[in-house]
Amino acid sequence: AGGGGDQAAGAVGNGIIQPGVISSTIGTSGVVFASMDQVRMDPKGRTQTFCHAIPDTWHVMGVTQAAGLSLQWMRTHFGGMERELADFMGVDPYILMDKEAERANPGCDGLIYLPYLMGERAPHLDPYARGVFFGLTARHGRCEMIRSVMEGVAYSLRDCLEIIRDMQVPIREVRASGGGGKSPLWRQMQADVFQTPIAITNSKEGPALGAALLAGVGAGVYRDVNEACEKAIQVVKVQNPIEENIPVYEKYYEVYTDLYPALKGSYRKLLDISSQ
Fold it and tell me: Residue 135 — left, alpha, or beta (φ > 0 → left; ψ -120 to 50 → alpha)?
C-alpha cells in the first residue's frame, strides 16, 4: 500500500485532499498545508512543494519551526505554578495557561512575540533568527506573556498562509489540527488572525488515521482516498472570526511583519558575539 510522509498522511487524516481545504497544524512545529491538483512552487523557496499521498496530486506547506514548542518552552521554564496546580487538579497545565491567556486583551496591549526559538523556515529561511518579546512594559504580566506567545505563533502561521495565497492556491476552509488545535482559544486566534473560519473534524490522530486510510485503500476496503475520507472524516465544529478582533490583529500583524527585517542584521551580530 502506498503511504506518505508525516504531513501528507496527516493531511489525509484531516481530509485535506482537495484544492480549497487547507490545514493549520500546531504541534512542536506549525504547518500550513494545502492540497493542489497541479504543481505550484514559491519562486523564493519559502514553502515546499511535494507529491501528495494521492496519485496525481501535490501539496505545498509552510513551516514555522517553534509553534507548540514556544508554548511548551513557556510552560517548562515559567509555568511551575501551572504545572503544580494542574497536577493537584488532575488537568493538563495547558488548560490553565489558556485560562490565563483569556484574561489578556487581543493584541496583549502591544506585546508581540516572535517565535523564532529554533531559527525559522517560513517565510524567513534563517537559522540565525531568534525569539523576541517586543513592546514589553511594566503593565504586562503573566497573562499577556502567555497570550503573546500564542498570538505570535498565529502570526507566524499567517505568514505561511499569505505565501500560499500569493501562489494562487485556493483557500475555502481552514482545518485546525495538532495539539494546539485542541485549544478553543488558539483556534479563535487563528480565525481572527487569518480572517477565515476555522473548522475541526472528528479526527484526533491525523497522521495515524491517514496512514490507516491509505492502507485501507491499498487493501481494497475503500475505492480511493476520496471515498475513505468521505466515510471517515466529518467537520464537527466551525469557529468564525470575531469581527471586532480582526482590525486589532491586522494592525499588530503589520508591526509583527516589520520586526524580522529590522532585526535580521542584529541576529547575525548576536551569534558572532555569543560564539566567541
Answer: left
- Mean pLDDT for the stretch of residues 12-36: 95
- On whether the CB atoms of residues 22 and 32 are closer than 8 A, the answer is yes
Place of cell 504545572: 83
Give just the sign of the alpha carbon dihedral 141, 145, 150, 156.
positive
Active site residue 6: yes
Cα separation, 254 vs 155, in Å, equals: 10
DSSP-based three-state secondary structure for 126: strand
Q: How far apart are CA 160 and CA 14, in angstroms?
A: 19
Query: Which one of 6, 87, 224, 258 is the catalytic residue?
Result: 6
Report pLDDT digits (tens) over 72-85. Answer: 999 999 999 999 99
CA nearest neighbour of 178 among 146, 207, 157: 207
Q: How many residues comprise the chain?
A: 276
Quick one: which of 140, 142, 141, 155 has its CA closest to 186? Answer: 155
Task: Tell me which residue of 155, 173, 192, 128 sits closest to 62, measured CA to CA.
Answer: 155
What is the Cα–Cα distance from 1 to 25, expressed in whole angstroms? 26
Cβ atoms within 10 Å of 225's Cβ, excluding its own: 22
Q: Which of 69, 22, 11, 64 is nearest to 171 (CA)?
A: 22
